[in-house]
Amino acid sequence: MQTEKAALVGIVIKGNDPWATDDSLDELALLADTAGGEVIDRFVQSRQRPDPSTFVGSGKVAEIASNNGQFDLVIFDDDLSPAQAAKLEKLIGKRVIDRSGLILDIFARRARTREARTQVELAQLQYLLPRLTGHWQHLERQKGGIGLRGPGETQLETDRRLVNKRISRLKADLKQIEKQRNTQRQGRQQYFKAALVGYTNAGKSTLMNALTHAGVFVEDRLFATLDATVRSLRYGDGDPMMLIDTVGFIRKLPHHLVASFRSTLEETVMADLLVHVVDLSHPHFPSQMQQVKETLESLGLKDHPQLLVFNKADKVEFPAEIKRIQAEYPNAEFISALRGIRIDALRERLRLEQTKWQHACKPH
Fold first, then answer.
1. Which of 81, 97, 169, 330 has the smallest count of CB within 10 Å of its CB?
2. Are 297 and 304 spatial neighbours (Cβ–Cβ below 8 Å)?
3. Looking at residue 135, what DSSP letter applies?
4. Which DSSP category does 247 fall into?
5. How would DSSP label each residue in 165-230?
6. Which of 94, 83, 104, 263 shows the shortest CA–CA distance to 183?
7. d(C-alpha 340, C-alpha 234), whole Å
8. Distance, CA of 12 to CA of 356 (rounded, Å)
9. C-alpha angle 214-353-309 in degrees, rounded to nearest 5
């Protein structure tokens, strides 16, 4: 399939830091790349507040439209209402999707297991249901483009009644899958469970492989893995530890996805220790840490035991920077999962956490 050329659109609300919008657009560009697109332009508009009709205002829309011969679609960095998307598509003359639509598209491509495919299809249909209008008739002409995968090609031509019926069926399927997952969890209750959490592309799956030789799929792209992977980590003849790799977090994560992936995220809720993996080489890693913190709080995990692990330390150019962060986070571990740096030290730290948990669980 031919690579689609995309233009990105972001907004700076006056009073906010412009770098935050730039960073978010950089992330949106990575998402577009993961979806198979090529970003060739970006547009940024400063406003007091989003325009209720076109989000960025008529002047910026006219500017985008005047360049529409250069790209195939326009990706907005924030969620658009169905009415906004329809109007923008008409004014710009190109297909328009928003951040949520792009993330859902990536999840549709990445879903491998029955659970993940069910979760993604449910999230997509709930997102697309209010958009079942004439605005989507172009789906009959365009197959397989970014934002059009998954149920977009098979469900959107049906009426709302059939889509709602499908949503009900998917919810029932997820309940059945959740029962099976709960049965699996009960079999692991006697073991110490550590969940790897963190921003997407922080290196959780690489760390899982380094610790357990699990063979988890790894790729230097956002959302390389969706499914929770559970592997055992054994120390000598003692009880094994259950290590859980979970889907990465990201800013502006669509609420439909959070709801649909509830059973997967519950692997995190049920863990005895959260191993927060941070990409130390990212220029704005504190912002990513804050996003993970907020997501964990939304799951009711604000006070859950946590171990902070700074990954990709080998990519930090200045040793003084690492020393500064070590002083700020004296209890954190600093590693390189890819190169195996200080992995043994992290294993020992996890073993100590397991021992503390075992002593706490013993009857007094």
1. 330
2. no
3. G
4. P
5. HHHHHHHHHHHHHHHHHHHHHHTTTTS-EEEEEEBTTSSHHHHHHHHH-------SSTTS--S-EE
6. 263
7. 18
8. 47
9. 65
> Counting every residue, how long is the chain?
364
The pair of structure tokens assigned to 100 is: 């949520």
Mean pLDDT of 191-215: 88
Strand partners, 171: none
Cα distance from N-terminal residue to C-terminal residue, the chain: 64
pLDDT in tens, 156-189: 555 677 888 899 999 999 888 878 877 776 666 7
The Cα–Cα gap between 21 and 159 comes to 38
Q: Is 5 exposed, middle or buried (0-12, 13-18, 19+ CB in 10 A)?
A: middle
Which residue intervals of 35-150 are DSSP H helices?
Answer: 58-66, 82-92, 99-110, 114-128
User: Band of the pLDDT at 262, cuts 50, 70, 90?
Assistant: low
Distance CA 203, CA 30 (A): 16
Distances in Å between the Cα of 265 and the Cα atoms of 60, 194, 206, 207 are 39, 13, 19, 19
Residue 255 burial (10 A CB sphere; 0-12, 13-18, 19+): middle
Residue 186 CA to residue 7 CA, distance in Å, equals 48
Q: What pTM was estimated for this model as a whole?
A: 0.80
| Contact criterion met (CB below 8 Å) for 7 and 43 | yes
In which order are the strands placed within the sheet that holds 37-47? 37-47, 4-13, 73-76, 95-98
HSE value, Cβ hemisphere, 13 Å, CA-based, for 30: 14
The amino acid occupying position 2 is Q
> Which residue's structure tokens are 């998954």?
150
- Name which of 288, 263, 264 is nearest 277 in CA terms: 288
Structural tokens at position 321: 């920077």
In order of their start, the domains of the chain are 4-104 (3.40.50.11060), 111-175 (no CATH), 189-361 (3.40.50.300)
Of 253, 231, 252, 251, the C-alpha closest to 242 is: 231
Which pLDDT belongs to residue 134? 45
